[in-house]
Amino acid sequence: MALSRVCWARSAVWGSAVTPGHFVTRRLQLGRSGLAWGAPRSSKLHLSPKADVKNLMSYVVTKTKAINGKYHRFLGRHFPRFYVLYTIFMKGLQMLWADAKKARRIKTNMWKHNIKFHQLPYREMEHLRQVTTFNQDLKCLFLGIISIPPFANYLVFLLMYLFPRQLLIRHFWTPKQQTDFLDIYHAFRKQSHPEIISYLEKVIPLISDAGLRWRLTDLCTKIQRGTHPAIHDILALRECFSNHPLGMNQLQALHVKALSRAMLLTSYLPPPLLRHRLKTHTTVIHQLDKALAKLGIGQLTAQEVKSACYLRGLNSTHIGEDRCRTWLGEWLQISCSLKEAELSLLLHNVVLLSTNYLGTRR
């Protein structure tokens, strides 16, 4: 007994390895197991509520994109024609939303800095004019109403296919449709050109100045014979269009209706309202002309040039860019020479300057 105690003490002093008993080994195993099973105390392993929401949103967006991609591939394989309409519709919505946001940003800037419409740069003025076009607003309102009921978007697709020109705005047209529809609209306004020239001939006897009577007669004759008038031939008649009988407030009702059709404005309104709309429309174009002259035609892209020419009466869809720039330069030279009281001449210039340009008369 004493000898065993001595041996144990000796081994403890000299550091010799002594196998512990079963009781000691079991306690150590339980202790280590307890350390392994214990819950982590570090708070870094937990996500904050904001991180949880962010991760959830990221997951939802990723899944939505994946499902949307599968849906697009399914439509492209099994319904190719419908997929074309669907793609055009979705791109049109994106373009329309982007235009609306840009228009709102421009108007907000105008309100903050007390800027009037005529003080804006040309591109911002043109953007607001396009967004606030009366006909476009009616079409958007109609599409919005019929899209309210559940699953009515399929009806919108059907109407897009059947009546794209009558019900949709340019955002939802294909490139080919844009060209075709612009030709159709120009044919509509072209029908009113001979009627407007005839109204000008009827008022010639009412002009008191003999020289002005001769000049207007000569101008109408040139246009009827297919000759493109010179700039000085038109500007020489400024006095005729500033007061009776061709001033904006002295035009006859039928004359006003014909001019409304030439400007692609509805002619089924009372004459006073038509006259007001023509005044407003012509004033906006005059303000655009001044801003464009300040910017310079050379700063416009090819599409902007063609769009500007079409607005002013020229069917630019089948005319080269250089000739469109030449015609737009002639228009600006006339427009920037006119005063506010002479805007009736600018309104008639839609017919006078565009009818026979480069053989466009048909």
Automatic annotation (TrEMBL):
Coiled coil: none
GO BP: any one term: mitochondrion organization
UniProt key word Mitochondrion: yes
Predominant location: mitochondrion
Keyword tags: Membrane, Mitochondrion, Mitochondrion inner membrane, Transmembrane, Transmembrane helix
A Pfam entry, by short name: LETM1_RBD
Topological type in the membrane: Single-pass membrane protein
Gene Ontology MF annotations: molecular adaptor activity; ribosome binding
Any one GO CC term of the record: nucleoplasm
Keyword Oxidoreductase applies: no
The Letm1 RBD domain, residue ranges: 188-362
Subcellular location: Mitochondrion inner membrane
PANTHER family per the UniProt record, alphabetical: LETM1 DOMAIN-CONTAINING PROTEIN 1 (PTHR14009:SF13), LEUCINE ZIPPER-EF-HAND CONTAINING TRANSMEMBRANE PROTEIN (PTHR14009)
Protein name: LETM1 domain containing 1
Organism: Gorilla gorilla gorilla
